[in-house]
Design brief:
By secondary structure, the protein is α/β, with parallel strands linked by helices. It folds into two domains: 2-265 and 452-478, Glycogen Phosphorylase B (Rossmann fold); 275-451, Glycogen Phosphorylase B (Rossmann fold). Helices cover 43% and strands 13% of the residues. It contains 20 helices and 13 strands. It has a seven-stranded parallel β-sheet, sandwiched between helices. Strand 4 (114-118), helix 5 (122-130) and strand 5 (135-139) form a beta-alpha-beta unit. The structure holds uridine-5'-diphosphate-xylopyranose. Residues 22-24, 27, 141-142, 268, 292, 294-297, 321, 357-358, 360-361, 377-380, 383, 398-400 line the site of uridine-5'-diphosphate-xylopyranose (UDX). Residues 22-24, 27, 141-142, 268, 292, 294-297, 321, 357-358, 360-361, 377-380, 383, 398-400 line the site of uridine-5'-diphosphate-xylopyranose.
Amino acid sequence: MRSQREPQQHQQPSVLLLPLPLQGPINCFLKLAHLLSLSSDHLNITFLNAAFVHQRLPDLPSRFPRVKFSLFSDGISGDDPRPPAKFASMVSFYEAEVIRSLPEFLKSPAPATCLIADGVFTAVGERAMELGIPVVYFSTLSPCCIWASCFFVPKLFDSGEVPFKKGKDLNEPISDIPGVEGTALRWCDLPGICRTQDITNPYIQLVLEECRKLPKAQGHILNTFDDLEGTLLDKLRSLCPNLYTIGPVHLHSRTRQPESEQRVTSNSLWQEDRSCITWLDAQPSESVIFVSFGSVVPLTMDQLIEFWYGLVNSGTRFLWVRRPDSLVGIEDSEDSSLQVPTELLKGTRDRGFIVKWVPQEEVLAHGAVGGFLTHSGWNSTLESIVEGVPMLCWPNGIDQLVISRFVGDVWKIGIDMKDICDRVVIEVMVRDLMEGRRNEFSQRANRLSKSAAQAVREGGSSWLALHRLIEDIKFMRFEVPNDT
Ligand code: UDX
């Protein structure tokens, strides 16, 4: 079947990029924009950006001279990064704005011939397909979570298995779902939405909608590489046959830059504090555990104190990112206002360094960093894999619960500390990561790091997948069925 809107002769390919306006997806889509803009002078690229993100990254037009930016409101005032509690309402407002504008993008001189949208925007995707614009979803979450979400999460909701009954043992392996060879997921490893007690919550409905509608697109871009998730990708192809595994996109984008320009460029929505690099320069090789819980995970004061004691008591050097907005219910998160026990302040002065936001890719690549205590966000995980840094995982929700299981049990490049926030356990596990099991984790992490580098090199699996994506966009090979 052909698209409702046949490409006109000599029409130039024009792609619309629509990221979710959060730190992780914005990073991924900007890397993709970079990769596409290197590909051909004959490809028009329009980046549909949230106005607040654009305000925070004012150098985007000069860094991406070939990309046109088109701005939308997300209905929230100010340019602070958006709090997770407003996520569902922000997405629906933003979607409505973009849907209203879609017909404009079909007008000359460069009518859109393809939409690449974050997988959360299935309503925009559906409308685009109705207008005859082929859709490729770029789901920037981890493929292991997308696999779990597409294959069995909706069924668990339909059968009433979720929400979990009171007293259910979440550590039990799930027997009747296809797992990755040799690894059973446990109930506690399922995507974050399975932990809800309220299935009417708009966020839960949004994610379930996404799981059901994702396969309808003409293609799917994934931020992964074949060697990392081969078996699982084969399973995913049975639902979404046209997969483009082009990741890790940050490494891919860096590798394609001319050597003289191969530095990390920042897409940070927060101000980066580079004093951490000077501090790292003064630390011995692989002696520091880097601690960061990404851009959205909140911490309670109790959790903060448990982590702090665990880190200080482990005797390990640590570099800790503490976003000013990450403490639940606390406005002023300066140490002087938090009434922190003096032994923690002393331990930090002796062996630690705390900052609000760092250039993370650069930190993970620094020779002084030997481990990463992370919330297992997909970008952080890939950045750690690329640098061969073993991980101690403390997942919070979304895809992180699945990812940490894969880190601990499939790739075996770290420890899954899921659902535990206790100073003694943290102390022991930090020592295990940095000393006891360091060699076994490092060897595997280094192997994966090499295979990531191979994947993005000329002729590698991600390189070839990107080439195919660009050819498909340029020669407008996508077809929208008439019945969408
Ligand atoms: C969200 C979800 O929480 C996560 O589960 C999902 O996989 C992606 O979307 P986030 O929590 O922000 O992402 O985590 P992550 O995916 O790890 O992305 C954080 C990004 O911020 C990374 O690219 C990281 O390099 C960057 N970062 C983080 C910095 O640049 N500096 C910092 O100090 C901390």
